[in-house]
Give the backbone structure.
Amino acid sequence: MSDIITEFRNENTKDIDILPTREMVRKMNNEDKLVALAVEDAGDEIAQGIDLIAKQFLKGGRLIYFGAGTSGRLGILDASECPPTFSVSPDMVQGFIAGGDKALRKSVEGAEDNFDLGREDASVLTDKDVCVVISASGNPKYLLGVLSKADEVNCKTIAVTCNSKGRIADEAGLVICAEVGPEVIAGSSRLKAGTAQKMILNMLTTGSMIKIGKTYENFMIDLQAVNEKLKDRAIRIVAQIANVSHSEALAALLKCNWEIKTAIVSIVMKMDVETSRAELRKHGGVLRKLIKSRVAV
């Protein structure tokens, strides 16, 4: 029997193949309820990860995910959602999957067992970056190659895993481990393990972006208003923060090419667009620093 916890057989779901469908759903849902608790137990390490990533961002560094299979796809998904959510460059948060982009849609046999491929993909890393390796089992040789290369360039490293005894846990500088236990279907780590990893990655990027001023209160003030839904959201954000009507918020946004923070500053500080942009640059783009004395919190 494997000593990898993600390969264990779940005693609670041995009869899942003969259950009525509704009972099958109940059992799967009961197992999923354990995921949030496992992530909660890793809260201290997640917070350390957020602080580390934010610190490196402020130094001009990047967050770069590496994973194989489901874990790699989750990293790429999280990275791809950062530019539209926070208006950051696509280079700031990146994702790599063992086997390259074709592995996003189809399995690439042997890619996760290729140590040299991991070292090759990790050649993008610098000492300013944070390298996050993601794996349920924590054992892919591809990720060991990534960590080997990261160490050579003095890059900060984080392992996100569901197995504290995995090999990446021995090699990474910080380990975030959510031990969700055996899967509903033995070894199918796209289930509870995948859900835990998605939750953790959400926290790492969202938390670090909050830390560097990409939100005001809980408003998404750096979103890119590229469609009607997001334009409507931008109008509501400006109206609520600046305490003006929707029509005034729209007028301000149109003047500044839908830059939410610029629109808010122009209204609250009674400045023209260029002066508002200059003031934001002077305060590192952190809206709260600029208008905290002008807007009731």
